[in-house]
Design brief:
- The protein is of the alpha+beta class.
- The chain folds into four domains: about 140 residues, Calcium-transporting ATPase, cytoplasmic transduction domain A, CATH 2.70.150.10; about 200 residues, Calcium-transporting ATPase, transmembrane domain; about 170 residues, Rossmann fold (3-Layer(aba) Sandwich), CATH 3.40.50.1000; about 240 residues, 3-Layer(aba) Sandwich (Calcium-transporting ATPase, cytoplasmic domain N).
- Strands 12, 13, 14, 15, 18, 19, 20, 21, 22, 23 and 24 form an eleven-stranded mixed sheet that branches. An eight-stranded mixed sheet has the order 10-30-29-28-11-25-27-26, with helices on both faces.
- Strand 29, helix 30 and strand 30 form a beta-alpha-beta unit.
- Helix 31 packs antiparallel against helix 33.
- The longest helix is centred in the C-terminal third of the chain and has 41 residues.
- The relative contact order is 0.12.
- Its main location: membrane.
- One of its GO terms (cellular component) is endomembrane system.
- GO terms for molecular function: ATP binding; ATP hydrolysis activity; metal ion binding; P-type calcium transporter activity.
């Protein structure tokens, strides 16, 4: 069923002839299984090892070497005798080719491993309604039309249309498909826009994603290869590996070399026909064989046998250098390809930004009701360290000196289900829960408590205790009595807390929703409560808009004091009941937060620009937020007009093919995109002659990573993304890519130098053998001697060139032409 998200639940059920209560009958299940097959990703047989080995011998230089080895072997047999040295030549050449084939085969298996890893995201079982009975079946046995029930922790077994939600909120973690860490709140209402991207299809559940909160019933609409994860599987399997720039140049060189060798060898043999009958050869046939051996020697001299070994050594050395820069290379050729990179398509979340949401603004109404008090919060990670300042002046013990800030801390500490953890080995702070709530939790620890003595002892406790010390202070004084979960219709969540005196409701949510239900507001730092008038509401609404333009996510914080007398408290069970409780509230203030840019990214992007490398930002986030981040990191200037340089996925879809190509050449930002957009963008850039590096971390990124010239996966990403990529960033940092490109350019330059050295040496050998052969003189060098010169005498100095340090201006030149 296509576009199920545009249908109402009743329309979707009618399409399959099923009801939510009874589900499919056994007869309907059998019919659907014959029509749609199993709910499983296609399992193509693995490529036979012999086929992978044969693929390694299709290179032009390899074919020439194979031909040379074969002729040498035949001549050695024909010559007879007990001298084993005659077989050294073909044996050495075959050894080199076998070693290269082993390296190549190991790289070829990466695509199949990525496909196999997709299976990990398939659910094992599903709770289904059939013939009016609820039962558990294997997820493979699901068919379109089945009614399933999913709850917190479940993995979605197929693409489904949400029919009904049995909890107050129902959230899904779709990060493997969208790359965005924030869970998505689901709904049952149809979506009118048929072009809605998956992130906006809030009434759909996608195979492989996970239920974070809530419980719902859903209708299976797509199974197996037809699901969103099935599309990714198809994209990975359909990718055709493109040769690297170095590989293309070596292929061209091999084609030219084959023609030259054939011509020169034939010429040498033909020139010496007159000498075939020379008595020293023992007859015409032996003379012909003798000069054929000389022609083969000429071929061996022309072929740089040591080239493959030196290239592999150089690239392997490059992988070690990149590993020291936190870039783990999975495919040797990608080391050199990085040096030719002309475009980097980078994901925003987690690569250009920290992927650690942090509060950077605290705002409330001034005491005269005519302005706003604005505090800046330092720190851009989940580490609970950072000053609170106002107009550049630091404010210590703020919760003790400002009653309004204390109330803000009460809401952010208690209206919160997240936790911050600390890895003792790496010293990194990590989040358990929603990023938004994590940012609020960290804010509480930065601000502290109203107890100055308690705050003063913070330095004396362990680092792990500091993570939740202030939060526990508030939790002990205001124990939580009930939680009224977030719902999309009221755009808020609240908790009922109680101290020794009274009960009160603490609320957080979207500013427009909270403001509409507030009758009072806190003004000034002393916590004075006054009626909320239009002027104040307008002042706050304007601030919300201004912050939104700067890419900040705004939350409003409010409370209902002495709510214990409200009769709804005992019977509140629905989201409508919660909305009635959250009335006549007192607005306390606003907090603004964002996923901040990594501090080193701006300098790295400037360095890329000076190196002639274009950076394109690709994100599933909304356009305003993405443009703000792009201005902060230097992709756009502060006042630069982004017309024609920033597109949403839908705007890109609406362009014709010519306009898409122009957009790919000009634009620096693509927001609200899906996996297909990434693949299309890579394809267009490659058609335009660019060498493209693409970053990604989710399952959805795997096809684009595979298609790009250099796929770069994040260390914290999924196994599917890592297996599809050529390189993995251990620290998920864009600056690491820039460093790897610099190393790649150095390796590219060194590769050019030793290729020139080897070729020039071989030209000398060819000329000497050709002249002696043309003059009818005895052979100057026999094949074994030539191999020694090519592999050892020339090979070792050529390898030494691999160790050359990078030129000081290597990142101030344009990328080498692919």
């Amino acid at each position: 069923m296509e576009n199920a998200f545009t249908r109402t639940p009743a329309e979707a059920l009618k399409h399959f002839g099923v009801t939510e209560q009874k589900g499919l009958s056994e007869q309907q299940v059998q019919s659907a299984r014959q029509k749609y097959g199993k709910n499983a990703l296609p399992e193509d047989p693995p490529t036979p090892i012999w086929e992978l080995i044969l693929e390694q011998f299709k290179d032009q230089l390899v074919i020439i070497l194979l031909g040379s080895a074969a002729v040498s072997f035949v001549l050695a047999l024909f010559e007879g005798g007990d001298d084993w040295t005659a077989f050294v030549d073909p044996a050495v050449i075959l050894t080199i080719l076998i070693l290269n084939a082993v390296v190549g085969v190991s790289q070829e298996t990466s695509a199949e491993k990525a496909i196999a890893a997709l299976q990990e995201y398939s659910a094992n079982e599903a709770k289904v309604v059939r013939d009016g009975k609820i039962t558990r079946i294997k997820a493979d046995d699901l068919v379109p039309g089945d009614i399933i029930s999913v709850a917190i922790g479940d993995r979605i077994p197929a693409d489904c249309r949400v029919l009904s939600i049995q909890s107050n909120s129902f959230n899904i973690d779709q990060s493997i498909l969208t790359g965005e860490s924030e869970s998505v709140s689901k709904d049952t209402r149809p979506i009118k826009d048929e072009s809605a991207v998956k992130q906006d299809q809030i009434n759909m559940l996608f195979s492989g994603t996970t239920v974070v909160t809530g419980h719902a019933n859903a209708l299976v609409v797509l199974t197996g290869a037809n699901t969103a994860i099935g599309d990714i599987h198809e994209s990975i399997t359909s990718q055709i590996s493109q040769p690297t720039p170095l590989k293309e140049k070596l292929n061209d060189f091999g084609d030219m070399l084959a023609k030259v060798i054939t011509a020169i060898c034939a010429l040498v043999w033909l020139i010496n026909i007159r000498n075939f009958n020379d008595p020293s050869h023992g007859g015409f046939t032996k003379g012909a064989i003798y000069y054929l051996k000389i022609a083969v020697s000429l071929g061996v001299a022309a072929i740089p046998e040591g080239l493959a070994v030196v290239i592999t050594t150089c690239l392997a050395l490059g992988t070690r250098k990149m590993a020291a820069r936190n870039a783990v290379v999975r495919s040797l050729p990608s080391v050199e390809t990085l040096g030719s990179c002309s475009v980097i398509c980078s994901d925003k979340t987690g690569t250009l930004t920290t992927n650690q949401m942090s509060v950077n603004k605290i705002v409330f109404i001034t005491e005269d009701g005519k302005g706003l008090e604005e505090f800046d919060v330092e720190g851009t990670s989940f580490a609970p360290e950072g000053r609170i300042t106002i107009q550049g002046q630091s404010r210590d013990d703020l919760a003790a000196s400002s009653d309004t800030v204390r109330q803000i801390c009460e809401v952010t500490a208690l209206c919160n289900d997240s936790a911050i953890s600390l890895d003792p080995k790496s010293g990194q702070h990590a989040l358990v829960g929603e990023p938004t709530e994590g940012a609020l939790r960290v804010l509480v620890e930065k601000v502290g408590t109203p107890d100055r003595e308690f705050n003063a002892t913070r330095a004396s406790v362990s680092t792990s205790e500091r993570l939740h010390r202030a939060s526990k202070y508030y939790e002990e004084r205001y124990p939580r009595q009930a939680t009224y979960e977030f719902s999309r219709d009221r755009k808020s969540m609240s908790v009922l807390v109680q101290n020794s005196h009274s009960q009160k409701l603490l609320v957080k949510g979207a500013p427009e929703s909270i403001l509409d239900r507030c009758t009072h507001v806190i003004v000034g730092e002393n916590g004075k409560k006054v009626p909320l008038n239009k002027q104040m509401a307008g002042l706050l609404a304007k601030e919300v808009v201004d912050y939104g333009k700067k890419g900040l996510r705004i939350l409003a914080l409010a409370s209902v004091d002495d709510i214990g007398s409200n009769p709804l408290l005992k019977g509140a069970k629905t989201t409508q009941d919660y909305a009635k409780l959250e009335q006549n509230m007192t607005l306390i203030g606003l907090v603004g937060m964002l996923d901040p840019p990594r501090p080193e990214v701006r300098a790295s992007i400037a360095k890329c620009r000076s190196a002639g490398i274009r950076v394109i930002v690709i994100t599933g986030d909304n356009q305003n937020t993405a443009e703000t981040i792009c201005r902060q990191i230097g992709v756009f200037g502060q006042n630069e007009d982004t017309t024609g340089k920033s597109y949403t996925g839908r705007e890109f879809d609406d362009l014709n093919e010519t306009e898409k190509m122009e957009a790919a050449k000009r634009a620096s930002l693509f927001s609200r995109v899906e996996p297909t957009h990434k693949q299309k963008l890579v394809d267009l850039l490659q058609q335009a002659g660019e060498v493209v590096a693409m970053t990604g971390d989710g399952v959805n990124d795997a096809p684009a990573l595979k298609k790009a010239d250099i796929g770069v996966a994040m260390g914290s990403g999924t196994d599917v993304a890592k297996l599809a990529a050529d390189m993995v960033l251990v620290d998920d940092n864009f600056a690491t890519i820039e460093g790897a490109v610099e190393e790649g350019r150095s390796i590219y330059n060194n590769t050019q130098q030793f290729i020139r050295y080897l070729i020039s040496s071989n030209i000398g050998e060819v000329v000497s053998i050709f002249l002696t052969a043309a003059a009818g003189m005895p052979e100057a060098l026999i094949p074994v001697q030539l191999l020694w010169v090519n592999l050892v005498t020339d090979g070792l100095p050529a390898t030494a060139l691999s160790f050359n340090p990078p030129d000081h201006d290597v990142m101030k030149r344009r990328p080498p032409q692919a």
